[in-house]
Amino acid sequence: MAATVQLNTRIDPDLKRRGDAVFSRAGLTSSQVVRAVWEAAATTQEVPECILAHRERDDIDARLAAIHDGYGLAIRVMEDLGVHFKDPGEREPVDCRAERDAMYDEMADRFEAEYGQI
Fold first, then answer.
1. For residues 2 and 82, what is the distance between their CA atoms, to the nearest angstrom?
2. Close Cβ partners of 36 (under 8 Å, ≥ 6 residues apart)
3. How far is C-alpha 107 from the chain's CA centre?
4. 50-85 confidence digits (pLDDT tens)
C-alpha cells in the first residue's frame, strides 16, 4: 500500500451526524467521501460543483450580513445627528408620490420666499 496522509478537520457534531446518516445509507464512510472529493478534483482539475455552490451561499450570507451591519451603522449615525426612526413594525406605509409632492412644495415655498412669486 502506498504511503498515505491523514487529514484532520473540525466539524459541527450535529452536521457530522446528519451527513454520516446520508453517506451510511449509500454504504459510504466519511473517509471514502473525502477520498472521492479529492479524486474528483484531481481528475477534473476543478472544484466539485457542490462545493462551489456551498461557497457561493456562504459569500452571499457574508455580503448580506455586511449590508445589515452597514445599515445599522447608517441608522446609528443618523440617530447621533438627531434623526430618529420608528421601529419598522410601527412605520406606516409611505406614499412616495405624496412625499415627492411635499418636497416640491417645500422647494417652491423656499424659492418664492427668496426670489418672490414665480
1. 70
2. 28
3. 39
4. 777 777 777 777 777 777 777 677 777 777 777 666
Contacts 24+ apart (CB under 8 A), 97-106: none
d(CA 91, CA 19): 44
User: Could you tell me the three cell numbers for 69?
Assistant: 451591519
| Cell numbers given for 25 | 445509507
> What DSSP string describes 27-38?
T--HHHHHHHHH
pLDDT, tens only, 19-33: 999 999 999 999 999
Distance CA 47, CA 40 (A): 8
Residues in the chain: 118
Residue for grid cell 406605509: 93
Check: CB of residue 22 under 8 Å from CB of residue 50: no
| Contact (Cβ atoms closer than 8 angstroms) between residue 84 and residue 76 | no
Residue pair 112/118 in contact (Cβ under 8 Å)? The answer is yes
Contacts of 88 (CB under 8 A, 6+ apart): none
**Which three cell numbers, joined as nine digits, stand for 31?**
473517509
